[in-house]
Structure formats: C-alpha cells, structure tokens
Amino acid sequence: MEKFGSHLSFGESDIALIDLARSTAAIAAALAQQPPDDQVVLIAGDLMGVQKFIYTISSDGALKSLRARSFYLELVTEEIVQQLLDALGLPRTNVIYAGASKFYLLVAATDALKEILERTQEDFNDWLLETFQRKVFLAIAHESFSVDQLQSASGSKQTPLAQIWQQVNDKLAAQATRKFVHQLDTILNPQLSHQPCKVCHRDDVKRLTRLKRGEPDSVEACAMCARMFRLGGQLLRVKAIVRSSRRNVSPTRLRLKLKSGIIYHYLFNDPKEALRIAADDDLVLLVNDWDVNHYQTSQVTPLLYANYAQPSKVEFEENDQTKPGTMRAEEFAQEAEGIKRVGYLRMDVDRLSQIFSKGLGEKYTLPRLTSLSRQMTYFFKVYLNSLAEKRQHNFIDYCDALNFQRLPRNPPNDPQKDPDKNLRENLLFIYAGGDDLFISGAWDEVVAFAFDVYQAFRAYTGNHPDITLSGGISLDDAKYPLYQAASDAGHAEDNAKANGRDSLGLFGEVFKWSEWLGAAETTVLAPEDQKYLETEIKPHQFEELFGVKGLFGVLPFVKRLDQQLEVNQSRSFVRNLLATAQVQTQMLKEIEDQQSLEAKDIRYFLHLPKIAYTIARLPRCVRDDPNFDPVRTSLKSPYNAPYFRAIATWIECLTRSSMTPK
C-alpha cells in the first residue's frame, strides 16, 4: 500500500491513501486494547547526544567509521521502537515516525504503559552509558488524550493534536538537562583509567585492538570503534538485516546486550537469503527494497536509508576475504577538479519544529502529520540516493543551475541518456535522514550537489516561503581530521542560519541561496540598502536598456569565467578580484557605523576603478569577445560588489591544484 498509495489522494485531495489507512489502523489497534474513556497516548523518543557520538572521532578511516556510526544509531532507534511495540502488543502501523534518532508512537493508555516506558528507557540508558560513556542518552516522553481530540478543531489557530505534539516535545526537551538521572550512582563511582582509544578517546576500556587487523602501524581502538570501522566497509553491500535473539545465524552481525536480553542484528547482502534464514519470531529489515514480493509476512518491514557511496579502489579484509570498501578521502581529493581537496557538506531544514507544530494550521490531523514526516523521510532517505546515483534521470531541468555544459539528451523514451559533465559520482553519504545530512566527496562535486539538493528541495516543497534549507561547506586536505572538518562545516552552517536562514556558507562567505544562484537580486538587500541603490540600474534591466544580458550573484560569473578564461588569465583576474575584496573588507572594518553613507559608498562603489583596471589587463581576444560583454557590464554593477571574494575563490579552486582554502 505504501508503494502504490503514497501519492494517491483518498477522501481529501491532500491526504494520501497510505496515511489515511495507517492512521486508521493505528487508532483501531490502540482502541482494540479498550483503554479507559478511549484514551490514547502519543509517545516521543529521542537519542540525544548524537553529535558527540558521530562527529568526535579522529583516526585513519574516520569517514568509514563515522558512516557506520550513523547507521548504527538507525538500528538502535529501530530496536527501541520494536521493543516498545512488542511490550505494548501493537503492530508497526502505530509508528507515526521512526528515524534520525527520533520516533513517535500512538498507543493505548493502558495501566502498564508508564512502567513499560520507564523500564525501556532505563534499560537502554544503562546500555548506552556502558557502551558510549555518556555520549548518547535516550529520552522518552508521553502525553495522553482522548481519541476525539484527533479531529481537527475548525476555526482554531492550533488544533488539539498540534497542542499535544508541542507538549510532548516540550517534555522531551526538558530531559536534556537531567540525562542519566537514574544512572548517577554508576557515573559517580570511581573508575580506573586506561590507555585511551585513539578513535573515540574513551579511557575506561582495559583492552584495545588494532583498528586494521594485521597492520602493526594501525592505531589501537576500543572494541566498539573497531566494530564500527569494519561495519563501515560492509555497508555498501548491505541489503537486509535480520533482528533475532538467536546466536550464530550469520558471521556478520551487531550485538546489543541489554538487561532484558541480547539482540543480534545480522547483515545480509542478499534479501532473499535473509528472508530464507529468518525464523517466525525474527524481524527482517529490507534496506531500500520496494519489491512487494519480499513483503509476504508481517515480520518484514522496510528500512529506508541514505546509503549512496562509491566503491574504493583499495580493498579490505573481511572474514578472510578481500573486498572493496567505500571511497576514501585521499581518493576524493584526487578525483576533484582543480584544487585537490575534500568537501564536507552539512545541511538541515530551517525551523523544522515550527513546521511540524504550526505548519499544518487548522488542518493538523493525524493523517497529515504522518504524511509530513513521511515526505521528509522520502526526500532525505530515498530521493537523495537517486539524485546522486542517476542525477540526469532524477533532477529538475528547469532549475539545473550548476550544469556548466548541458549535453544533448537522447529521446525521452530512451532509458540511456547522454552522460552529464557533473554527475556527482565522487560522493559519500555519511548521514542523511530526518531533516539533515552530512556528505563528503570531491570538493567540486560536493558544492554542486549542495545546489542540487537545495533546488530539488525547493521544488519538492512547492517553493513554500517558510520551508527552506541552510547549509555549510568546508574544503579540507585529505589528511585533515574528520571531526574538525565536520566542525568547520557545522560552523559554516551556523553562520548561514544566522544570516536569516535559507543561506549557504561557503569559501568563508555567507549569502542567500538566491545570491549564490543568481536570482531575484533586489530581495536580498536590507531596506536601507535598497533605498541607497534605488537610482542604480539593476542587472536584470541591462538587456532591455543596453542589449546585454545582465549577470547577478556568484554562480553566473563563475560559469562564464570558467568557460572563457584560460588558466593564466584566470589567475591574474582572480588576484585582482581578491585584492579588491580585501581592500573593501579592510576599509569597512575601520568604520564604526556600517550603515553610514561612507560605508555604503565603500561597499558598493569602491570596486569600480579596480574592476576597470582588471578588465583592461585581459587579452584583447577576451575583451572583444561579445560573450564577455555581460561579464564586463555586470561586474561594474554595485549589486555585485559583495560577491567578488566568493567568485574569485571559486574560480581559483577550479583552476589551481595547490591552494589552501580559508
């Protein structure tokens, strides 16, 4: 039903058949337990501290280890959900959302509910405390209400369900200040300190092992980090997972040792083999599998996972067999165009909590809430896989801003389309799900993919003004510590959020996406700046007035200059642009009032003499080329003055093989 009923409306035009069916089944399953006064409960759960668990690692093979850690948390989230469903006697339909370390369940308000939630939370937190040394904490909150409140309250600004959603999330957030309150005795007990793990730096483990078996120079790591390193090499091929309490089902496995018992997760490359081996009381998770023939029993469920990666040319040992792993940072750097650097991209949806709590307005009903979470999951865990894997098949032509050289396509009915210069092949999805992502790869492809993701997301959400993305990208040497690269990309993302959101931090600059892409130039200026420049001709008016198409923003200039300038010409041109930007920056720093007339004069007009000089230094063949006229005219526009540093740095990265980006 999910495969064929996800985009078919039923009853109302904005309610999908799957969401109506799943919500109805969830309510029916809860009411079948005959709770008093038809009371139901919304349960919310969150694995807090994921950032510490995922990003604070440093070692050889960190990319692979970090990717495995994000996948492992997906399995832990699934395990918590499954244990709650088993304890409450409910089916999977009662899962409103599960993924990205969070989950929401709709259950019956039974007498045993509180005890089950407390026991589950304490059991998992004991395990998390021992396994991850206080880095990850499970918070669980719940809010009870009458099933009648699931109906929308017509005319109200906030429906009862919206209020319930907000209340349960407030309770969840409150637990962030009192983590591990039931484990304080364990935390406060003195513990012996040992040699720290070289990956996660924990020092409470007696025995460390070589991260890479058989290599005496490999760093020493704790058992968990060694397990994550091996898992990272296997993820490229995992197609199914069997959750079982049985031992020795398969040699490739993960183990969760809880007080309630030991649970194994066996990894399979062939879904048919997993289905054949699974016992009646096992659960089979099929990774990104939409073959309905594989879902013949209720013990089989899909696991949507952003798993895009390219195989490495370097092989690794697994169970005495030599197999290819995923691409390494060194390989990404070598595949990059121009400067040999690795790019790291972090993005997330702006104001997601407000979208879920207020975005549906008076139409805040359970089916629509389920649909909202499902559609977010589809974008980050399903669509991004296909966007990276087969970009030309799965991207929107009309907003294909970064394809510098559009190649002709074969007829639409031909499944084989011509190759695309920017296929984004050299990427690795470290994490993508919920509402955010962390991706690495060759720097130029990471930058291009960021613009792909943004444009696709805006199209996916109907260009809704309040549903946007912000992101940050860092460019680093292949040997640069991954945890620091993640921090740098996160800092760039924070700067983008501080820029009023809907922005990107890149090359040490922060602009709105429209400024990077080159669209709607007047909307990005503050009102006082718009008034200051009101007598100036805008770039989009150039064609009408001068017969020359105007350029605005960063990308249009980069595309033109990359195509028209030779390498030596680009270097000279870039130096002059950077010098102009540097003079502007330095002079603006010396002015206290940034809104003064003097500051505006410097910001928007200081560049004119230097730009005229820079253009005059170009070869005559470039200056006389009619295709260069838009560049010449548009560079002099005050509307483009803020973008010189970003333009120059981008071109420099494309044309240089030895430069350290800031």
Compact description:
It is built from 25 helices and 21 strands. The chain is an alpha+beta fold and 662 residues long. The strands form 6 sheets. The chain has a 6-stranded mixed beta sheet with strand order 17-18-16-19-20-21. The protein has a 5-stranded mixed beta sheet with strand order 10-11-9-12-13. A 4-stranded antiparallel beta sheet has the order 4-5-3-6, sandwiched between helices.
How would you portray this structure in words?
This protein is α+β, with helices and mostly antiparallel strands and 662 residues long. Among the domains are: 180 residues, Reverse transcriptase/Diguanylate cyclase domain (Alpha-Beta Plaits), CATH 3.30.70; 131 residues, no CATH class. Helix content is 42%, strand content 19%. It has a six-stranded mixed beta sheet. A hairpin with a 1-residue loop joins strand 1 and strand 2. Helix 20 runs antiparallel to helix 22. The relative contact order is 0.09. The C terminus is likely disordered.
Biggest sheet: strands side by side, in what order? Answer: 17-18-16-19-20-21
Ends apart, CA distance between termini: 50 Å
- The oligomerization state is single chain
CATH architecture of the domain at 327-506: 2-Layer Sandwich
Strand content: 15-25%
Task: Describe the main β-sheet briefly.
Answer: 6 strands, mixed
Question: For the record, what CATH class of the domain at 327-506 applies?
Answer: Alpha Beta
Query: Structural class per helix/strand content?
Result: alpha+beta
Could you tell me the number of beta strands?
Answer: 21
Mean of pLDDT: 85
- Which value, in Å, is the CA radius of gyration? 27 Å
Write out the CATH superfamily name of the domain at 327-506. Answer: Reverse transcriptase/Diguanylate cyclase domain
Query: Can you give the helix content as a percent range?
Result: 40-55%
Estimate the global geometry from the Cα principal axes: globular
